[in-house]
Design a protein that fits this description.
The complex is a heterodimer. By secondary structure, chain A is α/β, with parallel strands linked by helices. Chain A has helices at about 45-50, 90-100, 110-115, 130-140, 160-175, 185-195, 210-215, 230-235, 260-270, 285-295; strands at about 5-15, 15-30, 30-35, 60-65, 75-80, 150, 180-185, 195-200, 205-210, 220-225, 240-245, 250-255, 275-280. Chain A contains ten helices and 13 strands. Chain A is elongated and about 75 Å long. By secondary structure, chain B is mostly helical. Chain B is built from eleven helices and no strands. Classes of the chains: A alpha/beta, B mainly alpha.
Chain lengths: ~300, ~270
Amino acid sequence: MDTILHIEGLSKQYGKITALNKLSIEIPRKSVFGLLGPNGSGKTTTLGMILDVIEKSEGSFSWSIGEKGNERKKIGAILESPNFYPYLSAVNNLELVCKIKEVDSAVIEPILKQVGLIDRKDDAFKTYSLGMKQRLAIASALLADPEVLILDEPTNGLDPMGIVEIRQIIRDIAKEGRTIILASHLLDEVQKVCTHFCVLDHGNLIYTGNVEELSKEKNQYSIQAKDEARLREFLDGSDQIKSWKKEEEGFTFVLVESIAIEQFVEALSNAQVYIKHLSQITFNLEKKFIEILDQKS
Amino acid sequence: MIRLLQIEWIKLRNYRPFWILSILYFIGLLLFYLGGQFLLMWIESEGVELKGIKPTMLPIYDFEDIWHNFTYMASLAKVIPAFIFLMIVTNEYSFKTLRQNIIDGMTRKEFLFSKLLLALVYSVASMVFIFISGMIIGYFGSPVIDFNSIFGHSDFLLAHAIEMFAFFSFTLLLGITIRRTGFALILLLLYTIMFEPLFALYIGYKFEGPEMFFPIKAINLLVENPFTKYVLLETQQHIKWTSVLIVAVWAGIFNYGSYLILRKRDLL
């Protein structure tokens, strides 16, 4: 795997509180990597450390981009809220970022067009709405043609229209083949844009996976029968299913890949199990997330 | 270095409070200089004589005294540019732009260096302003105008720039440590006006000498009160290089302290 960021045993301690506990992950190049977890799980701490704004207590990380020591110039990042000089215009704020990143300021206008701020480019940042501030932050992150884009809760506080706009911008950026690291507690958001994700809880890494592979678990079904005991007995003895689980109402099961659902229904019929309900389950990250947290607790 | 200055320039060129306060400082300084003569006229009108000399006869605008007089007067007002500088530093925390600058690719060392460059430029600008004001006022107010008398005591101009830079370094340390303009300003005033002078007084009373090594005292000693010469007391003639050395060591300590805090502290 071509890794763009390698994190090894990264920890952050605030006195007796462990904000992050020995995190080890590898982020594939050109992936959209979701950092999931409830508030206070260590997402922002992780991003802060890999961006050098928070001192690590232990562990290490290494970027495989740009010149050693100058990696941050090839990273575009927004950590929590957009931070700019309130009295400066969008153009002046971006001019400053260009100077820091050592890129030509000719890139400013096309990027302001891309994020839809060209008409307000000379207005002071303090006069912008939250959505406009967020768009300016994305413009700033894109200035130096970054290899990696780090976004921390990019849709926080936005109205539904703003959320849709920002998501679209993220998708467009992902299509350009950049690596995106996205921290969010909005699972729907991550499922819609991410290719990989990990779950943090109380500073611990509790799951890491590939959204695409999980979505491929297409052979997952939900089933209810008139005679639940008979259905349980059938599921228990069937060699057509990989696994099954009792739910609040009925059961869920994963069918063996080589078996078609019609064959399974026929087998049910032969065993005289009469079904009330049978439907395929589409992948839902929210459900997976709750499952992961439940398993952990 | 040019890049760091350009970065500071972009940050400040449209920052109105910086320009308003700076203009007020320089105009205030000019009025302070011009007001000196009016003060002497008022003192004279009150019938006061200084050891038999009429106050308006005092050569406060004469070359070469003018440099010592003007730099001393400027040193009394240095808290104003220090406040401007403090505000610029603490704004970086309140706007969270220091964090964003680092995220965008600046190193903490570069950030500190950019602020020190700004301090240096402001110190030199203040020195140049005093030089220009001194040249103009001296031209009209001094009976003797020749190269030797004009530049005779011009080393005080250099002392002023060093004094300003060292005081800015102290202010930078306070700004980086405290991060809030109001608290940092209160501490700056309390320390410079109250804590250190009282402690220096106590130490000076107990043992003679060590108080000159105190930071603010050392900075103030770069340009001592010149007006004592008008009441025929001994006065500093030139910069004391020992004072410059003490102040340079303090500036080094302040800036290294700022660097350590900036390097170690999380930017949240």
